[in-house]
Amino acid sequence: MRYILSFFILLCACSSYDRSIKVKGSDTEVNLAVTLAEHFYSVNPDFSVAISGGGSGLGIASLLNGQADIANSSRPLNAEEDSLFKVRKIALHTIVFAEDATAFIVHKKFPKDTLDIPSLAKILSGSYRTWKPVTGQEMPINIYGRQSNSGTHTFVQQKLGIHFSREAKEMNGNAQIMESIKLDRSGIGYVSAGYIAHVEKEQDVKVLYIRSSPKENAVSPLDEQAIKEKRYAFQRPLYQFIPSTSWDKVKTFIDFEKSEKGQAIIKASGYYITTR
What are the φ and ψ backbone dihedral angles of 7, each rounded to 5 degrees? Predict the structure, then answer.
């Protein structure tokens, strides 16, 4: 069953269709979008905002099918999607409203704190079947990833230049990956750094520092200054795609995200303020 986290705010008395906003897409963005919507609603009570996850691909498909006003996406449009929007003459507004970093996590008792990118590519592609080349321990590697419609799945594959191992488990979201890694000393997975920051008090996993090469300094996805200086290899913008036909309706919400209050909410939620 596809993971869907839904949040629905409904004003019973005053809402109208023109103030009813449907947001679908990225699981990386869904908790942040819910938090933004909660605060947006407190100052704009005549709007209703319905938010669901399911993955970036699902959100973009929902725009193509006329089933959403905003598609949250943790990746840009691919060539096929861009072509489909043009064929259907759907003009889009593209918003970059925050930045995130993909964190690679292991069990809290994993014997190393860092990985270099070449080793990470061999681990996630299945070239390494055990941890022996990395830790010296002959333990099988268990990979916890996302489905192919996930923007994070696509992002990690493209950054590493690999295809994920066929043995990789396809999980339904950050929470499921976190819970699996907590119980598996041989596991490795990837989640949003924003999600890590959000649940830090009950964290039972280790967030790995990543080196671009074995000789370079390792960087944490939770290092705000490193993200600001673009030194973490797996940081990325978070997108929102909006059909021009929905723009007038959603503009108030987009303006709220960009406001001082909206930016403070983004930062407090563990995500990064975009400088793009």
Answer: -140, 130
The maximal CA–CA distance of the chain, rounded, in angstroms, is 64
| Across 155-183, average pLDDT | 94
Both tokens assigned to 174: 């950050």
Looking at residue 73, its amino acid is: S
**pLDDT value of position 4:** 42
Counted residue by residue, the chain has a size of 276
Nearest alpha carbon to residue 145 among 107, 96, 104: 104
What's the pLDDT tens digit per position in 195-253? 887 665 556 899 999 998 878 899 999 999 999 999 999 999 999 999 999 999 999 99
pTM: 0.85
Among residues 105, 100, 270, 271, the alpha carbon closest in space to that of 178 is found at 105
CA-nearest of 178, 172, 28 to 100 is 28
